[in-house]
Amino acid sequence: MIAAVAERRAVGDWRGACAAADVDVCLRPDSVRRYYGSAIADQVLDALRELSPDLLRWHLPRRGHGVGDLLAGLLVPLAEFSDGTRRLTLAAATPQFALDAGQRVVLVLLGGRDDGATRSVVEAVRLKYPERLSLLRHRMFWSADAAGELAGLCDATPAEREIAWLQDAGRCAEAWQAGGFSLRLPEMRSRARWLAALPIRIAGLAGRVRDALPGVDEAVVRSGVGTLVLSGLRSDAVAVRVAADREALGLPIVPNAVWSRVVDADLLRFGYLGDHELHPLIAAALLASPQRSTPEPDEWLYREVPFIAGPCHGTADDAPALWIDCGPTRHRIAFHDNTWHIPDHSAHPGREALLSRLGGPTNPCQQALNYLSSGRHVIDLAASLLAHGRTTDVHNLLHTHAGARATLTHIPLPTGGTVAQALATHTENTLRHRMTLAAATRTPAPTTRRRTRKGDPARTPR
To answer: Per the record, which residues fall in region Disordered (predicted)?
Structure first.
């Protein structure tokens, strides 16, 4: 997806780039020019040409568990346009009907004509706290031209790195004190744990909040089930306290992009993400010498194999082979003649099977062999791809790794149902999504059957 978007953006095809990133643009520049004039239309076109839809998708909030689904019902303001008399806002939305059609994102223009498609999108999102997700002042999270500014949101100086180290070590009070804040620690242990785990960038926080909310003396940071109140923003002594939700009612909300840490930088720092796994625009901003991304062809297919250490290259006929951490040594597991084999593990298979039946531990090579022989690696990846609407990738995966019988797609999924049923559901949801954006859907009236007297069903109204 990232490569396809970059290729189309390079030739100025913003429509093709959005299509490649599964982002639906629910607006027409010619209609904008007709209704709002050339000044606003030119601003909208400039934003769409500047937009990197894959970078936007990369930064949208997701679920903390599962296969990385986008959070449903979000409305994220991206840019504002004005000609002096009227103001329009470009926003990214994640209505549930769009996510059901393959984790799609919808771009809408708010503040103007209320057409059917925009109304359907707005009715399916939450409008209570859009300022929390606002990226109006943080174009680096969606703009290819401003992506380099992500480097300014990371801890670069020794003092900033010291504060981050104190947070990592769980020394929450010391970290806030080093950042120039006076902290009132909560008495409840659960609130203290929430504060210690809050992914907040303390260094320079007061200045960023003042820039985002000028003239405000108190502001609130909301994250999950907790609320953090910053007071004394008009003075040099800023106090911090964990408060109940009712205490923070009516206070201005600090946008998430102002207070939260850059997730990519933290993942790199902890070693959970390799340099080559970053988005190219983010890598260019965060790394001194970014490397070209060269993932293995089957990297995602085998990543859940037990005790896997990585791919093994140089095998005969280029057959798939993996390194398995089997105790203190590494053994190969290779695919040959439609069967997985363990050529390096010399232990007697009958003795290993008997030991396992008696309740003993199964050796790592055998566990990896059982996993691969059952085809779970193919089924699990197919389920993840289906959740993201990658139907073409699913067909290619099954044809390559599951044989000709996979064309029938009667393969059971871990979440229930079969691949064929999941594909049919995706097709239906995609059609419903397209009809909604075309403002062609109508909600039928419920056809309930009421009873007039006991045992006699009434006629259904037509």
So the answer is: 440-462
CA torsion sign, 2 to 7 to 9 to 15? negative
Is residue 167, in this structure, part of any structural domain at all? yes
The residue from 88, 116, 145 where one domain ends is 145
CA end-to-end span of the chain, whole Å? 48
Cα–Cα distance measured from residue 399 to residue 406, given in angstroms and rounded to the nearest whole number: 6
- Cα–Cα dist 408/394, whole Å: 13
- Residue 457 counted as domain residue: no
Q: What is the pLDDT of residues 327-383, one digit of tens each?
A: 888 888 888 887 888 888 766 767 777 777 888 778 888 888 888 888 888 888 888
User: Is 231 strand, coil or helix?
Assistant: strand
CB 256, CB 59: distance < 8 Å: no
Contacts of 276 (CB under 8 A, 6+ apart): 291, 292, 293, 294, 295
Q: Kindly state whether residues 27 and 138 are assigned to the same domain.
A: yes
C-alpha radius of gyration, the chain, whole number: 27
Range of the domain at 23: 2-145
Give the alpha-carbon dihedral of 228, 229, 234, 239, to 10 degrees.
Answer: -80
How much is the pTM?
0.82
Question: Which of 226, 261, 296 is a domain's end point?
Answer: 261
Q: How many domains does the chain have?
A: 4
Tell me whether residue 78 is in a domain: yes
Answer yes or no: is 415 within a domain: yes
Do residue 212 and residue 329 come from a single domain? no
- Give the burial string for 136-161 (b: 16+ CB within 10 Å, else e): bebbbbbbbebbeebbebbbeeeebe
| Interval 166-175: pLDDT, tens | 998 888 899 9
Distance in angstroms (rounded) separating the CA atoms of residues 83 and 97: 33
State how far the alpha carbon of 262 is from the alpha carbons of 47, 76, 124, 171, 285, in Å. 23, 17, 29, 20, 12
